[in-house]
Write a sequence for this structure.
């Protein structure tokens, strides 16, 4: 899709948790659909490092109203992700994001009311996070 290259903002990648002992990492992402969506219509947010998928239950999403697990998003009927608005993707991962250059991947699978199939958007960025 035409917005895929804008999904991940590599400049926002950071470790989370205590300094020197990170418990995860976070980055900002944008929606790959031009109209915005209710959070319950986001079927997947798959995060990967160097092509290896991270566990679904380790991923949290925050569009500014507080973090939700992907399971919680399924019933977040009153929350939306507007087009062009960055949201924070948080990932629980002991040690945080690995040092050095790595591929950070994001796949969004979206349920769009007028499409007979899910909209799938992917982005991969080569990133380096200094520790």
């Amino acid at each position: 899709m035409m917005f895929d290259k804008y999904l991940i903002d590599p400049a926002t990648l950071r470790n989370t948790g205590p300094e020197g002992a990170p418990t995860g990492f976070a980055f900002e992402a944008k929606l790959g659909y031009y109209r915005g969506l209710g959070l319950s219509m986001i079927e997947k947010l798959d995060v990967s490092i160097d092509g290896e998928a991270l566990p679904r239950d380790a991923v949290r999403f925050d569009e500014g109203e507080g973090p939700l697990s992907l399971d919680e998003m399924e019933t977040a009927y009153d929350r939306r992700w507007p087009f062009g608005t960055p949201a924070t993707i948080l990932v629980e991962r002991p040690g945080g994001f690995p040092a050095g250059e790595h591929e950070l991947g994001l796949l969004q699978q979206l349920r769009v009311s007028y499409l007979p199939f899910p909209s799938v958007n992917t982005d991969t960025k080569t990133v380096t996070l200094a520790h």
About this structure: The chain has a mean pLDDT of 93. The two ends are 34 Å apart (CA to CA). The longest helix spans residues 70-73.
